[in-house]
Amino acid sequence: MKKYTVTTLVAILLLASPALAATTKNDVPECEMKDNVFVAVNFTSLGKSNQDAKKKFDEKVQQISDLTKQAEVKRIVNLTWNYTINEQVNSYENGYQDTSYLLLAAGNYQVDTLDNAFKLSEALISQKFKTAVTVQRSQKPDCVSPFN
Q1: Model pLDDT for residues 74-106, shown as the tens digit of each residue
Q2: CB 138 within 8 A of CB 33
Q3: What is the DSSP string of 70-116?
């Protein structure tokens, strides 16, 4: 009986050890980094009225949309647009006053790859837009660090 117990125990250990090794090695997700790539866009413009400044904003946003297509960016998500319209009173030496409306706008886009972010940024800069490319690199949420 003792011989069968030891033989059975050795057989179970031999069969179980590859399975245990497979579960510990393959079930733990790799800790590879994921890049989230963003392009920020800023521009200013002057309008003759609030409505005119808003119209210029809409035209600029459409121009940016057209530039993303020209740059052949496949996947892009518009995250936010913020804009402010400020009344500007300009006084001249002869007593004449002129009112204009200053448009300040900033938008953020998420782009699929860093190369596409650079292509889009270059296309925007060529049309006098101000841009910034930002990369947020992080681990996947289900990653288990070997140091834990």
Answers
A1: 888 889 999 999 988 876 666 666 788 999 999
A2: yes
A3: HTT-SSEEEEEEEEEEEEEEEE-TTS-EEEEEEEEEEEEEEES-HHH
**pTM summary value:** 0.68
Say whether 6 sits in a helix, a strand or coil: helix
Give all domains of the chain, ordered by start, each with its CATH number.
33-138 (3.30.70.2970)
How far is 136 from 33, CA to CA, in rounded Å?
10
> What is the rounded CA–CA span in Å between residue 123 and residue 128?
9
Q: What is the DSSP string of 85-97?
A: EEEEEEE-TTS-E
Q: Taking residues 17-28, what's their average pLDDT?
A: 50
Q: Is 120 exposed, middle or buried (0-12, 13-18, 19+ CB in 10 A)?
A: buried
Backbone φ and ψ of 69, nearest 5°: -70, -40
